[in-house]
């Protein structure tokens, strides 16, 4: 049997495409890990264990908040990987008894992830529902509390679609999407 080299050369792109499609359709292949990396994995998993927060949730928050850029600074003044407001950072640092804390330390991945994870844990304890936890992380726990009180007073269910801040609703959807993807891609290999 004679192999036609021209024909084989024309088939190579299709074969490569088929291989990549199989990898992408698996939802767990290495191409997905390139699209959804976990930087600072050791810190994230350690803080997750310490405070009882799923490390894939921490990772999803970091991806949405800063895309892993530790020097991120929002127009509102939120700092670092998990976009911690300096006042929140100071409050959490006191709760964690971190000595010599200054807001500049929020640019340090270790400090930022530790403070952000503790804060997520405190929101989980207070609100329970992940939608509300993420809404409070983004829009402020006080805003979420007031909204919940208003919903209860009006006898309405507290669905995220009724939350008054579109940016926060969008944020929750993005984090939940990323959280789902991280769990699908990495869950099997970290248990």
Tag the structure with descriptive keywords.
single chain, 191 residues, mainly alpha, globular
Provide a descriptive summary of the structure in words.
The chain is globular and about 75 Å long. It is mainly α and 191 residues long. The longest helix is centred in the C-terminal third of the chain and has 25 residues, at 166-190. It is 66% helix and 0% strand. The protein has helices spanning 5-25, 30-35, 41-51, 55-66, 86-95, 109-127, 130-139, 141-153, 166-190.
Poorly predicted runs: none
Cα(first) to Cα(last) distance is: 50 Å
Which bin fits the share of residues in helices?
55-70%
Residues in β-strands, percent? under 5%
Total DSSP helices: 9
Mean pLDDT: 88
Order of H and E elements: HHHHHHHHH
Instruction: Output the structural class.
Output: mainly alpha
Oligomeric state, counting identical vs distinct chains: single chain
For the secondary structure, the number of strands is 0
Rounded radius of gyration (Å): 21 Å
Overall shape: globular
Largest sheet descriptor: none
Brief summary of the model shown:
With 191 residues, the chain is mainly α.
What is the secondary structure topology, with strand pairs?
Elements: H1 5-25, H2 30-35, H3 41-51, H4 55-66, H5 86-95, H6 109-127, H7 130-139, H8 141-153, H9 166-190
Helix pairs in contact: 3-6, 4-9, 5-6, 6-7, 7-8, 7-9
